[in-house]
Please model this.
Amino acid sequence: MFTDPTTYQALFYFLVIKPGITIGMTVLLVVLVPASYVLVLPAPLVLRLVRRLGIWQANVAVEGLYYAVS
Model:
């Protein structure tokens, strides 16, 4: 099992790529979301942006797993 190189591709994704994406998005959202609620007007736009970022992150995860398996 561990001699197959595809085993390590998913592990590499979850240990190297995903934490970078998650930390970057967390810092960005911690700054943007409270500011948008204080200003009220950009709140719907920021919430749509957060939703799109979540969908993008999910797609990156699926691609990482898909390419690791195939």
